[in-house]
Amino acid sequence: MVFRGGSPQCVIVLRMDYLTSDQLVKYVETVATNPTLWHDLASVSDKRSYELLISTPVLNAWVISWNNGHDTGLHDHDGSAGGVIVVQGHIIESRLEKHEHGNCIIEREHDYHLGSTFQFGPFDIHRVRHAGANKGPAVTIHAYSPPLKRMGSYGFNEYDEFNRLPMEGEEELRPLELALKKDGSYQQKE
Predict the structure, then answer these.
(1) Beta-carbon contacts of residue 114 (< 8 Å; ≥ 6 apart)
(2) Which helix (H) or strand (E) holds 31?
(3) Can you give the pLDDT at residue 1?
(4) How far apart are the C-alpha atoms of 60 and 56, rounded to whole Å?
(5) Is 187 helix (H, G, I), strand (E, B) or coil?
(6) Taking a C-beta distance cutoff of 8 angstroms, is the pair 32, 85 a contact?
(7) The domain containing residue 52 runs over which residues?
(8) For the chain, what is the domain count?
(9) Would you say residue 179 lies in a domain?
(10) Which among 1, 78, 87, 149 is least buried, having the fewest CB atoms inside 10 angstroms?
């Protein structure tokens, strides 16, 4: 109760408890043990596919299918933490990290195979891509909390400036350099 000007006013605080990255990894590990939940959502083709598995006020989870050439480009999750498990194939994740000898930011690559998990915080910038030719299709399960609604895509413009492009809803992630027109505006993928 808060008192203002001598009269009591009731203050209602709604608090939503979101899941941590560790909890999200445990969640995707549990989902992965029951293929009947996700197997029908996997669809490996020429186009990277992403299918919503579940959406609640606390989290959402997606099944993402990958093939050779599929690449998200550098991106963030606009304040959502995440957990990922590989349920088929092989993917590579890169993270932006500060170089030990200065302010230069570099990408560090990590390989993930069947059963591997990784997590990221709400402000991490990373890239996920298929491992390449002769690796076969890959399928991953991703969980986000708070539920993923927006992302930011990163890349260099024609002046070699590093930029973030906000992305809403169902827009497909891909390397930003492929998504920008010469005037800096975003072009939809056909």
Answers:
(1) 86, 87, 88, 89, 90
(2) helix 21-32
(3) 30
(4) 6
(5) coil
(6) yes
(7) 15-150
(8) 1
(9) no
(10) 1
